[in-house]
Amino acid sequence: MSRKQIHLAAHFPGVNNTTVWSDPAAGSHIEFSSFAHFARTAERGKFDFLFLAEGLRLREQNGLIYDLDVVGRPDTFTVLAALAAVTERLGLTGTINSTFNEPYEVARQFASLDHLSDGRSAWNVVTSWDAFTGENFRRGGYLPQDERYLRARNFLEATWELFDSWRGDEIVADKETGVFLRDPHAGTFARQDEHFDIAGRFNVPRPPQGRPVIFQAGDSEEGREFAASSADAIFSRYATLAEGRAFYADVKGRLARYGRTRDELLILPAATFVLADTDAEAAELAHHVRRQQVSGQTAIKFAEQLWNRDLSGYDPDGPLPEIDPLVGENTIARGRASVRMYRDPLATAREWRERAAQKKLSLRELIIEVTGRQTFVGSPATVAESINDLVQADASDGFILVPHITPGGLDPFVDRVVPLLQERGVFRADYAGTTLRDHLGLSQPRAAS
């Protein structure tokens, strides 16, 4: 039986507590040199793509800008277009919102990026759920979850019609006159549905890939169904064997009802890693990294998101609050954390208190434990084996790696783990194609007639 080939990508982690800001090697998250170093490292490792997240508004907590967001993030399309000039094969994936943007604008930006990069663009389609973010836009407010995904599906289909409005053969040369003849209908489009009523002429020729590769990140029932119907890859939060296999089987099992095969949708969990010469040294380093990622102040911020209260007067190195969380609308945080992360805050608080009492954990130590996401910890050989085992067991098709040091944190993985995967014959030694669809093993979609 042939072994599956592993897909690897790299996530520039953005503004959050994943990055160990106190490390002297931590660099800027806004200077282009950071993005260029990160992208060149990923390409040196023959990764499929680089991924950028996107936030449309700074989060707030207790009425103040959430401190881990202050540095912000440059515009996604600007960064990816610049990276297209300093890379040759690496895919360029950006998160673009379907709730507050418009199909014509987004299609034009992705078609342009695909041309500039010779077919390496990808779009992570996301929705927004809160009116707080919507205040930055003329069309504010928010949509219910089912309505958000309906708009996203209509939005995506509208962009496909725009890409397909140029079939690629509209411009031909008349040999006798030397005049270029154009199909008078090239670029014309019309779309009318529950959310859009647009018609006109698209002014960018069909992209090299036909359409950008489509990614989706939702884990809800609506998100999984949207991915099965429309996406080329789905980000997963499940990087363990049991949970990963369950998610993999569920999402892949939905494809047939849309006339799709299992190899037409890739499942790629995000994954962190900590490397050292030995497993024991890596475990010690991982513990140190987690304490750097969750300072006392950060622990209080995380706890407030569960308790829905101001906990600034509590000692992070002391016990958990004895008071119960405030149930209902989250008023302590606005933005990405404004939707309650815990379905039953009272039950979660009881569980946290019991765990803290049993293990004699302080509030900070408890937060470190419950928010930990260190997926791969060990020597290069251990990490390579763990990654391969999960992929071969159909817990994923590969991983999107998130280093804790930016921009240089990806280098040790590329230098020490990638060669071991190549020796196993489960990861490419070089790029076989030129486009992102080539890297991912995806066929180019045909233009609509």
Automatic annotation (TrEMBL):
- Amino-acid positions noted as binding FMN in the UniProt annotation, renumbered to this chain: 95, 149, 220
What InterPro entries does the database record attribute to this sequence?
Answer: Diverse_substr_monoxygenases (IPR051260), Luciferase-like_dom (IPR011251), Luciferase-like_sf (IPR036661), NTA_MOA (IPR016215)
Entry keyword Oxidoreductase: yes
Keywords annotated in UniProt = Flavoprotein, FMN, Monooxygenase, Oxidoreductase
Look up keyword Cytoplasm and say if it applies.
no
Q: Which NCBIfam families match?
A: FMN_nitrolo
* Record protein name field: Nitrilotriacetate monooxygenase component A
